[in-house]
Design a protein that fits this description.
Layout: H1 2-14, H2 38-71, H3 82-97, H4 105-108, E1 119-125, E2 128-136, H5 148-152, E3 159-165, E4 174-178, H6 186-193, H7 195-201, E5 205-209, H8 232-255, E6 261-266, H9 268-276, E7 284-288, H10 294-301, H11 304-312, H12 318-324, E8 341-346, H13 354-363, E9 368-372, H14 385-395
């Protein structure tokens, strides 16, 4: 009974609206409770916070495992001879792009031509009206690239797309929002970035590019999230084309009267944003649940038997790492000032892993970072991420007081 009384008191302390456990005696007339002391209130807040943190971690881990299970479907595994082919492509691409040459992303990524007259059509979302912007990408893998025939055959990928939410006046900050792996539609992207708040409450113009092989750019024959598959040169060209397309959109936004340009990426989008800010002079960059090293991510997630076979065929060897240095955020330093670089990451992220965020944080000179309890997708309901992002946007001048 002593244990029951202790538990009853604890429950009543944490949740005062709940009746205490019955002890078998008639209920007594409730007495007026004395106000809780500061130490009591602090203990209550700590207990509730710890309970929330535990639930957040458990939920985040569970959803991350479901995501990884979906990414491990049989149709995403290499078939007989696939890894040998990929190894040969890596060797040929390394000879083409890197043999005897240092990693110089600025030289590898040429300045694309300006985007002059994209097609713009009105569109609708429950939270706001927006516009659907589309244009010819113009990106092509070089003909002597070993994967050129495959990459250039993705016909739907030749068209670039972006979701556009803008105010009547263009002379305000614009935020370029780069989505994560497997999304690329307005419903998922608007929810992930809290587009309604950014657009209506902060008064920002939003431009949300669709990454290659995503959304309307995805060939029907490819599985979801095929940008990251065992065909590593597809990831190589996907990142290159994402940077190419987004730089064109940034140029276009500047021509519309943007007073500031910020780049905000989630997951795979943070990889593109982190590389992009080393090639374009942007005023702010936010890397959410970031990825910064694709070969390491493959090594981390590949099953042991596939990892061994990939290493035997040179798929995850030195040449792969040297090749991906050309499209790596760790090969460039942001042109954005240190004060305007920010990162948020999940302490229990099973997808991009906390190590990726730590490496990017170190490479960026240890800028502002917010760790939240939970997994890869837990940022969506985290009570820490939204205030962190909003505060940083305000601090960097990405808020229009009158709009």
């Amino acid at each position: 009974m002593v244990g029951a009384n202790v538990w009853s008191g604890l429950v009543h302390r944490l949740f005062p609206w709940r009746e205490p456990l019955s002890s078998g005696r008639p209920p007594r007339r409730p007495r007026r409770q004395a106000p809780a002391s500061r130490s009591d209130m602090a203990a209550i807040r700590l207990a509730r916070r710890n309970a929330y943190t535990g639930v957040a971690r458990l939920t985040g881990r569970s959803i991350d495992r479901l995501f990884l299970a979906a990414m491990s479907r049989p149709d995403r595994y290499p078939g007989p001879g696939d890894l040998a082919r990929v190894g040969e492509e890596i060797e040929a691409a390394h000879l083409l792009y890197r043999a005897g040459r240092p990693a110089a992303p600025s030289a590898f990524h040429p300045t694309p031509p300006p985007l002059v007259s994209p097609a713009i059509e009105p569109a609708w979302h429950p939270s706001m009206r927006f516009e659907w912007l589309s244009f010819e990408s113009g990106y092509q893998a070089p003909v002597d690239d070993p994967s050129a025939r495959r990459w250039n055959a993705y016909e739907r990928n030749h068209m670039g797309h972006a979701w556009l939410a803008r105010h009547d006046s263009g002379d305000r900050p614009w935020l370029i929002c780069l989505h994560g792996l497997g999304t690329g539609g307005p419903y998922a992207d608007f929810a992930g970035f809290r587009a309604d708040m950014l657009h209506h409450e902060l008064g920002l113009n939003l431009l949300m590019p669709v990454l290659p092989l995503h959304g309307p750019r995805k060939p029907p024959s490819l599985p979801v999230a095929s940008l990251l598959s065992y065909d590593l040169l597809d990831a190589f060209h996907g990142v290159s084309q994402a940077v190419w397309d987004t730089r064109r959109l940034i140029q276009w936004a500047r021509a519309q009267g943007a007073t500031k340009i910020g780049v905000y990426g989630l997951s795979m989008g943070s990889y593109v944003a982190s590389l992009l800010c080393g090639l374009e002079d942007v005023d702010l960059v936010i890397a959410g649940i970031p990825v910064c090293n694709i070969p390491d991510l493959f090594v981390h997630h590949a099953p042991p038997d596939q990892r061994q076979e990939a290493e035997e065929h040179g798929v995850l060897g030195v040449h792969t790492r040297e090749l991906f240095e050309l499209v790596s955020p760790l090969s460039v330093m942001p042109q954005t000032t240190l004060e305007n670089r920010f990162i948020f990451a999940g302490s229990d992220d099973k997808v991009s892993t906390p190590e990726q965020a730590e490496r990017l944080w170190e490479h960026w000179g240890q800028p502002g970072i917010r760790w939240f309890a939970g997994g890869h997708v837990s940022f969506y309901w985290s009570s820490e991420v939204a205030p962190f992002v909003d505060h940083r946007l305000h601090k960097c001048g990405f808020a229009v007081l009158e709009h």
